[in-house]
Amino acid sequence: xRAWALGAALLCMWMPAAAESTQVFQVDFHNPQxxxxxxxxxxxxxxxxxxxxxxxxxSAQDPPTMETPDVDRDVTLSERFAGRVFRDVRDxxxxxxxxxxxxxxxxxxxxxLSYTGPDGSWSCEFxxxxxKEVQDLxxxxxxxxxxxxxxxxxxMLLQHDRLxxxxxxxxxxxxxxxxxxxxxxxxxxxxxxxxxxxxxxxRVRKRARILLAKQDK
Length: 217
Description:
Blueprint: H1 3-6, E1 24-30, E2 38-43, E3 48-54, E4 71-76, H2 79-90, E5 110-117, E6 120-126, H3 132-160, H4 165-178, H5 188-195, H6 202-214
Antiparallel strand pairs: 1-2, 1-5, 2-3, 3-4, 5-6
């Protein structure tokens, strides 16, 4: 994850309800080779948003693993993170011609960025972009989606495989430190449940408390 997103990565808090915004930013992701094959994140300037994912038709993993189901839920990101996204969009720092580089690079999945507001609208789609701002924004939003999906996985493990939480929390701790995951406030609810649950391993509770503390710094 690039520098512009690092400052907002863990500065998360639940924001009060705000009036409906006329500005909307959305990223649509599609890669039929992985699961979920599709997801959409809609975001408003106050950090409120909605996430929707669909598994797709990719073959199940071998050996079988617990797959994340289709997701359709409201989410809350930090207002600072959302503000940076909309500020860059309004300043057109992420709109400088065509998004797609057409370079021969590994397929990372199609990302379609879209914005609608009183100052106009635009969209662009890319696998990999030479535009640093576009590429950085895409990577940051991918990290947000990864966090949301990890939160769903934690909920499943808490219900069906509590011992599996230890390994998953280890991954989340590492991935949130190196930028593969960001905006832990999006999964604050499940982290709080784990931090207070005497029925899970002590290591899991401790990691949940550490992650909750980091997001408020």
